Amino acid sequence: MYFFARVFLPFLLFVYIGIETYLRLQHTSLCGEVGCALAGELLRFDHIYLNYFGLAGVLSLIITGYRSLKSSFFETLFFVLLYSGIAFETTIISYQFIANPEPCLFCLSVFSSLLVIALFSQVKHFAVVLATVLFIFIGLNTLTIPQNRSFVTAPGLYLIQSATCSHCKKIKTYFSEHHIAYTPISAKEINARGFLKFVDISTIPVLIIKESSNMTILKGDQKIIAHFDAKNKEEVNPMPVQNSTLGLSSDFLAAGGDAGCALTITETPSCADDNTTPILQH
């Protein structure tokens, strides 16, 4: 029984990871789901190195598992490696469940295999293993982890706002009165806050206007309303209007006119003008 649990099962897992590693090197995979592709985006390095690490870890399990049949020292070492591997995989799987819309099936398979090995290797300690897995998952769920998804996807208006912000309410009322469709994005969203920090904006409301060829960012209720008022006047009395946003041409920062790269940032007056509401920093 111990040979089956500590040598044979780890050997099967080693073969499974080895096949996946070979396929990865051939630019294919046993895991063709979206979660498998997204899992690689969460790593700081190429995901193939994680496969190498897994092969080395499982090979160590096979060696220590075989030696554990006759040595208490190697038995202890076997369980240290096994439980460390389970904790490692639990952390990765838990993070994927939180950050991605679906987890990696390959990672789930490795994780499940390690649990089966732990179950057959030492049944009386398996409850402790499950408790450890559960508390790692709960611990990660208490953290604010950005989800690996996009908010600004299709052309349209996206308003980063807060339900308690008076300036945001002014914008939403204006949009409602003028029948302007938009997508609200809460300023509490970690991805939204990260985006605002990236472009060095510390106040809301912020409107993102995504078009097929460029993206415009307007900050502050006065600037946003003025933009649409001017647009309405142009529709009533059309006349050539030169782009004056920041005094720059429309193709500035457009990477030589490459479609989809333009980014226009319109600043608002300072906080002394009482035009924006600060985003609380945590």
Automatic annotation (TrEMBL):
Transmembrane segments: 7-25, 48-66, 78-97, 103-120, 127-145
Top-level lineage group: Bacteria
Keywords: Membrane, Transmembrane, Transmembrane helix
Gene3D superfamilies: Glutaredoxin
SUPFAM superfamilies: Thioredoxin-like
Kinase found in the keyword field: no
Record-given protein name: Glutaredoxin
